[in-house]
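Need the bound structure for 2-acetamido-2-deoxy-beta-D-glucopyranose, inputs here:
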Amino acid sequence: MTVKDLLLALYLCSVFSVSVGQNETPKLPLKAVNLGNWLVTEGWMKPSLFSDIPNNDLLDGTQVHFFSSKLQKFLCPENGGGTVVVANRASASGWETFRLWRINESTFNFRVFKKQFVGLENQGGGTRVVAVSSAPSDPETFQIMRNDGEKNKVRIRASNGLFLQAKSETLQVTADYEGQGWEDDNPSVFNMTILADKLQGEYQITNGYGPERAPQVMQEHWNTYITEQDFLFMSSNGLNAVRIPVGWWIAHDPNPPKPFVGGSLAALDKAFIWAQKYGLTVIIDLHAIQASQNGNVHSGTRDGYQEWGDSNIKDTVAVIDFLARRSANKPSLAAIELMNEPLAPGVNLESLKKYYQVGYDAVRKYTSSAYVIMSNRLNTSNATELLSFAGKGFDRVVIDVHYYNLFSDMFKNMNVQQNIDHVNNQRAAELSSVTSSNGPLSFVGEWTAEWEAKDATKQDYQRFAQAEINVYGRATFGWAYWAYKCEQHHWSLKWMIENNFIKLN
Ligand SMILES: *[C@@H]1O[C@H](CO)[C@@H](O)[C@H](O)[C@H]1NC(C)=O
Ligand SMILES: *[C@@H]1O[C@H](CO)[C@@H](O)[C@H](O)[C@H]1NC(C)=O
Ligand SMILES: *[C@@H]1O[C@H](CO)[C@@H](O)[C@H](O)[C@H]1NC(C)=O
Ligand SMILES: *[C@@H]1O[C@H](CO)[C@@H](O)[C@H](O)[C@H]1NC(C)=O
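Answer from helper R.:
Posting the output first, comments after.
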C-alpha cells in the first residue's frame, strides 16, 4: 500500500463514518430560524394560499351556529351531544356550536360539543335528527344550500333528500321538509353564523382544494416559499441552523392518507442539500401530530379537538423512526424534535414521558450524535417538569421552551419597557431554571419580535429584539426565531433583517 493509497483509505473511512450516522457536531448555541408555513401550512402567515378554494369560509373545523329564522332560536344538540337535536336556545355558546367536517364544497358532517356527529336516527331510517354517532357516514352527511343573495341564509338537506326543519321549540328537529322558499317563517331556513376563530391549516387547505387541485397547489407552494436563495440569505446573515416543522403525513410520502398530499419529503430532502451547501444545520421538528397534541391549526388538526394520547404513541414513534432512519446519514442533521408544543392538561405528563422515552430510543437506533429535543408542554405552570426526567439515562437531549410576549392577557397592556423588562427578568429566570450545567441543554425553539405594545416605533422593536437575542442567547442549545417568512412583517426574520430591525452578523 502506498502512502497515497493509505491516505485515500483514511479519507474513505472518514467519509464512511459520516454515512453511518455521524453528523457533524453543530456549533452551539444555534442561531436558527423556523421554516414555518412551509411543510406545515398556517393560513395566517399567507392567507392567499386559501383564496381559490370554493366556499373557503366553510373549511374543516369551521365552527357555526344555526339560528332558526321562524322560531328565532338556535339549534342545539341536547346535553352537548348523545341524544336529540332541538331548536329552542335563545343564545349560543359551546353546545350550540357545530364543527364542520368538509366532504366537498357543499357537503359536510357536523361534529358537536361532545364529539358526536349530527345524523338521522336509526342509521338513517328515520327522519328525527340526533347527535349520537361517533363516526360519520351517509346518515350524518348534509348539504348546506346557501341563498344566492345572502350567503349566510341556508337550508340543510339530509341524506334522505329532505330538508331539516325546526317546527316548534318543543319538538325535536326533523329532516322531512319538502317545500321550497326562503321566507323568514319557513321552518327550513336558518341563519348560519360563522365563528371568527377558524382553522386554516394543512388539513383545511388540502381537503379544501380536493384531490385534483391540492397536489398542484401544495407542490407550487413548496417549490416557491423556501428556495436555495433563502439558505444563502440565512447563512450570509448570521444564522447557522434551520428548524423545519413537518407533519406526521410526511412518513407516508408519496401517498399519505387523504386529504394530505405527497411531496413534502422531497422538499425536506432539498433543504438538507441546501443546508449542507451553505453550512447550516437542520432541526427536524415533528410539528403536526396525528390526533393533534394541542388542537391548534399547526398540529394538522381537522376540527380543533386535541385527541393525542397513549393510543397514539405507537404511530407517532413510527414517524420519528422514519425521519431518523432517513436523515441519520445526512451530515447537516443537528437534531430531531419529538413533538412540538404538547398542551397541558390534554397531554398528560406521564404519556408524554412514555412517548419521549420511546421516541428517543427510535432516534438512537440510527444516530448517536444527533440531539433529541423534548418540548415542554405549551402551557405548563412548571417549566422544570421535564428536567429530572430528561436528565437521567439520556445522552444529547434538549428541552425546548417557546417564549412569546403574546397569547395571554398579561401582555395586553404592557408598554415597550415592560415587555423588555419581562424578557430581561421573568424570561431570563425561567430560561435559567431549565438550563442546567450537566443535564439536558436548553433551547428557545420559538420566539418572535412581535408583541402587543401599542404604537411601537422601529427603535422600540430593535430594543425588544435585542433584549430577546441577549437573553435567549443564554440557552445552551440555542434559539430559533418564528419564522423565516410571514406576511405579517415582524414575524418574518427575513423582513426584519432586510429592514434593519434585527442584526445578527
Ligand atoms: C359532494 O358530495 C356529495 C356526497 O358525496 C355528492 O352527492 C355531491 O355531488 C358532491 N358535490 C360536489 C360539488 O362535488
Ligand atoms: C344572522 O346572524 C348575523 C350574525 O349573528 C346577524 O348579524 C344577522 O342579523 C342575522 N340575520 C337574521 C336574518 O337573523
Ligand atoms: C392550558 O390550556 C388549556 C386549553 O386552553 C386549558 O384548559 C388549561 O387550563 C391550561 N393550563 C394551564 C396550566 O394554564
Ligand atoms: C416541577 O416538576 C418537577 C418534576 O415533576 C417536580 O420535581 C417539581 O417539584 C415541580 N415544581 C413545582 C414548583 O411544582
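Comments: Residues 382, 384-385, 388 surround 2-acetamido-2-deoxy-beta-D-glucopyranose (ligand 4) (CB under 6 Å). The longest strand covers residues 281-288.
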